[in-house]
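If your schedule permits, I should be very grateful for your opinion on a structural question. Kindly check, if you would, that the fold set down in the tokens agrees with what the sequence suggests. Thank you for your consideration; the sequence and its tokens are set out here:
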Amino acid sequence: MSLEKLPNEILCLLPFYIDNIETFTNAASSCRRLRDCLYTALPNTILRLAAASAPTFFSPHPHFLVAATARQVSDWALGNETRTLALREAFQGGIDSLYEFCLQHAGLTLEDIRRTHLARFSIINPLSDKIDKMAGKQWFATPNFWNGGVSEPYTIYTEADRATFQMIIYGELFGRSMDAFLQPEKNLPYFDIRTRIDYFTYCLPDWVCSSYPGFARLATGPYAPHLERPSEGDQVALHHILHCGRWRRMWAAAIRSVLGGDDAFTDEDEEDEHWRKRMLRNALQSQGLEGMQLVTLPVDKIDNEYVQKVRKMKQQIDQLIEPPRVEMLGKGALTPVSFAPDPPHDVEIPCRNMWGPWTFNPDAASDTDSEEESDPDWDQPKVIEMPSRTTSSLLESRWAPRPEETKRSSSTPRGQNHTRGPNHPPPSQELARFMKIVGRLKWKLPFLAEGYRLATLPADSGVDVAHAEIMFKIDFFEYYALLERAIVHLLGVFGVTVTGAITRSQSTPRLGRNRSIAAMHRYHANVLDTLERESCPLHSVLGTGNVREQLRKAKELRNRWKTADMSKEEAEKDSFHRPEESAMPLESYDFDHILSEIFVGLEDGLALAREQVARVENGTGNALSGDSEADWDFIVDAMDWEAV
């Protein structure tokens, strides 16, 4: 019996027995009657046929089909606590778990598939190319990459296609939540911060993602105990993309083109951006596939309804009296994560642990308290506050001295520490300089961590591991130089100075070609020797025990790796080259332990330094002084020769 003799009721059941979407479309195109019957298939059935054809027709898999269906599962869960918990559980299983969740609760029509495939050429591929040029292979191929070829060189690995879909999926999932903040009078439902962060934590696997005080990463999904540590670095890559200048300028230009001259969208530094502009930027970046046409198509090619939607969103934000509430999360300098979709800050929380082992101080949080119920996984312990990073506008940041702290008179005595020279900065200024360098240390830590990861990859990973190892060793050498300078300024709070002098109590140094060079290099040893003297105010926290041991180990590696990029001939000519050193593999060094112990010592030293500043300033009747913006000059001219 031929198919045409079967009743329509039977023909309509055929999709349940067809193997994939290709067979389905071929059968539908064979005759009009079969087409009419097959086109009655439910969207969920068509989605399952499409899934059977992945990844051949829907790559990257599973991101393509998740992006095509994420808005449906978002609508299914939004406003329903039980369903939202089910969605979070799907996130926590990773992108494959979210994919299965979409197959269960969503569907596709043939028109949806056609529209999404057309978007690949007008939106998806152009956006992927832009991301590749700002964080992918094309970016790394820029000539003189590390020497001015790009404005923000960074050691990351970005799979541009995957990053593109990860951002699109975020918008499809959470774009509806933005409506609740654009139209607060309607009291619309929205997904909370933790739901959004769960998406970034588990659906963007990253080898640096780990628990820290205030953030718990569950051992599920890509982090399940039976799996190897994720090799991807997707969170760090997307964090770089969302914060980099190219991405921000691209969006600023696109928004200007839609709003017109009267509503020019200027492009300030991220720290200086007004909350309304930040909210508009986040709102537009959270619109999913539709929203990305803003940066991939000229205005005259963008769907007119969406252009009007953008302008309406701008008007809605202008009518708001105050910004959405924020919750202070993270570590070190807490990150203000908005209750409204906030992709640049949402992605920062799960990968924040790579910014070093510093913990955060809840007292540094915003005056605006979160009204969401507390989550035991996010409780915040009380520890010493340390700055997270330096900014281009330090005086306007919350790490800057308060206005009253800058009114110190230069004629006022500086305390009674007899070791302080007449031209030595006062304790408060030394402390401020220490804090600034700590900011630099924290900023550089993710670069160091990513460099170590690349340098310890297998030889067949496709990365030039030998080159990566050399670059990491040089990075560590430079990192130790900053670490040493931080210690010198911390000593300066107590009036203790360090010189390159060779004292009689010290063993005879290896002089190399001349004594002046030896004295210059003796400076680095004297820094640690000063800490190890029992009379040193910082001896108890930095000059003894495990902290001292790790400082010595770090200095030894600094000495060993300062010539890492030299050729054999160049190294032999170097005065301090040690030809008989045995080369230990990088994997044998526990850098996390080394730096963690040192940072613990610095935190304890910071507490002592603050007590010292308080004693000195209270004794003289002065307010705590801070550095001016111009005093950043100290970072380049104070210790140039000692850093050799």
Notes: The first helix runs from residue 8 to 11.
